[in-house]
Structures are given as structure tokens and as C-alpha cells.
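Handover notes (outgoing to incoming on-call)

Open items:
1. Citrate synthase: sequence verified, structure written out, both below. Nothing else pending on this one.
2. Nothing else urgent.
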Amino acid sequence: MAKHTVTVTDNDSGKSVEYPVREGTHGPAAIDIKTLYSDFGHFTYDPGFTSTASCRSDITFIDGDEGVLLYRGYPIEQLAEKSSFLEVSYLLLNGELPDKNELADFTRSITVHTMVNESLKNFFDGFHYNAHPMAMLTAVVSSLSAFYHESIDINDPDSRTLCAHRIIAKMPTIAAAAFKHLVGEPFVYPLNRLSYSGNLLNMLFSRPSEEYEISPIAEKALDQLLILHADHEQNASTSTVRLAGSTGTNPFAAIASGCAALWGPAHGGANEAVLRMLEEIGDASRVEKYIAKAKDKDDPFRLMGFGHRVYKNYDPRATIIRKTCHEVLDDLGMANDPKLELAMKLEDIALKDDYFVERKLYPNVDFYSGLIYKALGIPTQFFTVLFALGRTPGWIAQWTEMVEDKEQRIGRPRQVYTGAARRDYVPLDKR
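Citrate synthase C-alpha cells:
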């Protein structure tokens, strides 16, 4: 018998059943109601699954009230400041930080898989010149299963590891190819001598006609952004990856489903919304007007990139990336850019104005990531692609955990049917 139980009583029949409560390392406990339907003939009704734990997980923990984000128990602030994206990827996949030899082996494995099959480039020729890069990314990631279908055995640990390394390695190459298609430039092959983030920058911005010099500050900033986005518990896209993966589909298809879910503006497009907001405000002289609009509950205008639906305190990821954002702007000599000057004025007001401070509407990671991407010269519509690239190790770690969990079964959410009652078919000539 569990240490803690909850009794559910049907007030019509008087029947009562005791259910065990599952305790985690951190966070709220969960009532184990998997036998509720067989016990009572009822489902639970929870739109958006906001009060439902769909799985057990050892990977990521969030305490939104306290502003805490842990990857495998490590605070995100420590990882973003001291670690690298590949080291964090190893941590998410394997549960522990690597030693020097393990990290070297992992980095080598990722590096040798960065190339994509040459015929994969033909996929991009089929896209319109102004196709949305997330459409290209989702389609091309899904197509990877056609290239590696014979080597995918989701029940074999070595096969799962190989798939994980391949998808983490190839995402920058695919993302950069989508970028080059978007801007009408030739694709750039990966260079094994470069770091993961340095290689991505080179594939995005180098051209055959001139050598591209990678800024160490930009390289560090991009690596931090990838770390900050690497996982975020059971969000919409991660849950989509798990749900698709529960059918036994191959991991590339499952990751593609995560890309499709992330594309939604309510999920992965938040930093795009920040840039659109800055465009609407126009310049720093209009900030006070828009601050007043944001405070007016009857005005539809909302400040994007401030506050967070999960973090009721300061977004822990914003603490690190705020400092990096200012370093990037200074390094690129863009501190006086009108849009960035506007953004900095918004930031200053939000950190000092009692209205925002009392409501804890602090700048979040999307606010700063949008500014960094803009400063680096990345088009707004490409922001979500970089989000997907950063989230990939989290998705594949969550998929792996789901496959290995013997208690997990195919996802089958239920419903409360409110449509027409049963009725008989009426022939066409009598309607």
C-alpha cells in the first residue's frame, strides 16, 4: 500500500475507491487513477492536460513559482554559464555529466554524423523560394527516416543511441540548408574542426566568395541559447514527441512531429512576437505610450517577452542570457541600433516600474533571444528553427525515456462527447 492515498467517492452510488499517490523528487504528487474508468465508468476531464501527469520522467524539473529549472538535477544557471551545448546534450541523454573521455567520444560521434546524404539536398529544390523555414525543417527531418529506416530498431539500445547522435548532429546542417534556401545562397558543408555552435554559424553565414570569421562572443551566445532551450519538461512539443513515439513510429518522425508542434505561435514563436512588438512600437520615443497601453486592461495590446505562463517569478534562463545579450550588442557595435535601443528602454522600465515588478512581469528568455538573433542577422521567421535545434536533445532524451519505460503505453486521450445523439440515416431524396 502506498504511503499516501486519496479516496474517490461516487456520490450517486456511494462507491468509494482508494487510489495511491505517486511522489516525485520535487514538485506536486500525482494521484494514480489509471483504473478510474474500470472502477467507476468515468474519465477525468482536464482540457489541455494542465492537471494531468502523463508520464514519469527523470530528465527535467520546473518550479515556476520559485523560478527553478533543473536538467537532471543541475540548475540551468550553472549549466548555461559553465557547460557547453554538447555536454548538456550528453547529460540529458545519459543522466550524468560526462568525464573528459566520454565528452570527447560523444563530440567525435556527433561530429562524424553532421553530413547529410547528398540526395537530401534535392528536397529543398521542391520548396518555393519563400517557404517558411519551419515547413522545410519539419519535412526534411521527417524524411531522414527514409534514409536510415533499415538501421532503426527502437527496441535496441545501440540503435536508439545512434539515432540520437544522428539527429543532434544533422539538425544544424538541415537548419542551415533551410536558411540558405531562404536567402538564396549556396549550401555550406559542415566543418569538423569547428565547435557545434561555431559550425552552425559558419554554415549560416559563410559564402564561397569570402571567408567568414566567427565571433567568439556570438558563438558563446548561440551555445547558451541552445542550452537554455534544450528541454522544458512536458510542454506541448515534447508531449507531442512522446505521443507520436508511443505508437512505435521511428524517432525521426517523432522529432518531426515535435517540430510541427513547436511551430505554433503559442509555443515556439514567442521570440518572433517580441520583434513584431518592437516593430509596432516603432522607436524609443513611443515606449511610454505603449507601456500605458499595456497597463490598460481594456486595451488589447500586450508586451511580448515579459512574464511567463510557467515562471511566476523571474525566468531563471533570462538571468544568464540578459548579460550575454548585452555582450553581443556591444561586440557587434549595435548598442545604438534604434530597435535595440527601444528594447533596452523597455527592459529598463520593466525592471523598475512598480506595475511590472509587483506582477513579476520580468523580461523572459524569449525577449533576449529575439534580440540576440536579430543582432546576429537572423531573419525573424528563422527564430523557431533555432529553438527546434536547441530542443532536439531534450526531445530525443524524452523519446528514449518513453521507449524504455515499461509502464508506458500508446497514448490515448479520452473525451466528453457533446455531439448529436444516435440517429438514423435519412435517404437523400427525403431530406
